[in-house]
Amino acid sequence: MSLENINPTTTSAWRKLSEHYNQTKGQQLKDLFEKDPKRATAFTRQWNDFLLDFSKNRITNNTLELLLELADDVKLADAITKYFEGDSINETEGRAVLHTALRAGKDEVILVDGVNVVPEVYEVRNHIREFSESVISGEKKGYTGKTITDVVNIGIGGSDLGPVMVTEALKYYKNHLRTHFVSNIDGDHVQEILKELNPETTLFIIVSKTFTTQETLTNALTIKEWFLQKASVADIVHHFAAVSTNTEKIAEFGIAPENVFPMWDWVGGRFSLWSAVGLSVALAIGPQHFEELLEGAHEMDTHFKTAEFKDNIPVLMGLLSIWYNNFYKAETEAIIPYTQYLSRFSAYFQQGIMESNGKSTDRNGKPVTYQTGTIIWGEPGTNAQHAFFQLIHQGTKLIPADFIGFKRSLYGNTDHHQKLMANFFAQTEALMNGKTANEVREELLAKGMEEKAIKKLVPFKVFEGNKPTNTLLIDKLTPASLGALIALYEHKIFVQGVLWNIFSYDQWGVELGKQLATTTLKDIEGSEISNHDTSTLQLLQYFKK
Ligand code: G6Q
Fold first, then answer.
1. Where would I find the beta strands (DSSP E) of 208-366?
2. Does 446 lie in the same domain as 393?
3. What's the chain's average pLDDT?
4. Is there a catalytic annotation at residue 514?
């Protein structure tokens, strides 16, 4: 069954939220805290090793109640059931959306067209385990009998970003294998990677759900040619593996059947790291850690599926984001992890969130009359503090931000970790409290500055404050906690897509790019240039000169 089709702005909760917004928009977080000594605990939720403190948001109990009412008005609970049960909720592509099945319990039954997909998932999970164990242990050898030292993932978009992000995030758990990622069609990208590699000791994994993506196929062929400069066609079976739904095309490439990992069309590219798309992750951190990543995600799935909305972390985070996007008209959201390991986390969810919810057509096929997909950006703290934090503190835009931190560091360097986390806590506090003119004045007076100079400087040193943040404090960065964290944001995407009455799981904008490149390539390669606007025509002519 498809998702309900409810324009959120026609619900009574939305109307109430609009009124409520008008009445409360001037409220100051500082005042809300002063008025209610229990505010922090009232707006904090604990789940496993996660703590979400969302008290530094411009909300009251009433706001939360109305947002929860909105979730009911658009039938979020019913949508969640359809999502997990494999209904065809990716309507424009006629597919189920079941990345959750990739991490489901072994005994669960999840039907797609009447067939339980869980056994197939476990077959592939076992294959991933066996394959990666044989490479890691050195049992699997290259064509000259040497053990494999390097693994190259060849893929783009959803077939690249997840593995890149997770291998970086779980670097601490990594084994001796060196991992590389070739994604861009830019030939310099592949050359820079190839120059570090020895064909005798490198395993290449071609990851492409469709096996038709120009970038991936071009890179794979370039790499194959490079490989064949030293090795022979018969050696390909020892050095190439593939992950795809398109098994025919894989066979054409010459890949041995035992090195082929299937995918399913009910898994979207940007949600596929849990499938064999994560093979490079399993190789890098070992299959046991890979399984733990999946188990962590599965626990978050269970929380999302079963927790009451008022305690449901993905639901709460999704609703808060709607509150800012649709009522406060905030256009962007920052994700700031306070760990260098998560340096690719925001980039990863830039795709996840913006490709999923960057839609302007509702489920009726009509243009939406309200804002959808927020713009996502961010970098790890404390580096970010020395870069764009200026704008969050004193710029003209409202930027709700998620601060993600860990109670314990991995190497246990207490001095560094305490300093890191001092910054983490101090920033959300400062963003909320700001600094008044009087406080600035006092500070400057204490430094012995003269009255005239103080007067001149005060306006520049005032911080308005009242900037909303979520604080997500997790015990430790482990494969399981990372799995849960990724799943949390995946479900937040779902919640928002349901609320906005859009289809989150297609990506026609990406498909357009794939088509356009083919036509323009003909113009570049051929002697004649087809019809273009005069700007594009001029640029093509200049390029070809
Ligand atoms: C993800 C998108 C997109 C896709 C790439 C690669 O959801 O659809 O990023 O993953 O275009 O596609 P293939 O895996 O088919 O090569």
1. 240-244, 260-262, 332-337
2. no
3. 97
4. yes
Q: Atom of ligand 1 at shortest distance to CA of 507?
A: 8
Tokens 């991936």 belong to 216
What CA–CA distance (Å, rounded) separates 535 from 519? 17
Write the CB contacts of 350 (distance below 8 Å, at least 6 apart in sequence): 376, 377
Which residue of 90, 159, 355 sits with most ligand 1 atoms within 8 Å of its CB, as the best mutation to test the pocket? 159
In a domain, 95, yes or no: no
- Say whether both 353 and 378 belong to one domain: yes
The number of folded domains in the chain is: 4
Active site residue 38: no
Cβ 207 vs Cβ 155: under 8 Å: yes
What domain range includes position 219? 103-291
User: Whole-structure pTM over 0.85, yes or no?
Assistant: yes
Tell me: do 398 and 521 sit in the same domain.
no
pLDDT in tens, 465-509: 999 999 999 999 999 999 999 999 999 999 999 999 999 999 999
Q: Are residues 379 and 409 in the same domain?
A: yes
My answer on whether 453 and 441 are in the same domain is yes
pLDDT tens figures, 17-45: 999 999 999 999 999 999 999 999 999 99
Q: Which atom of ligand 1 is nearest to the CA of 271?
A: 7
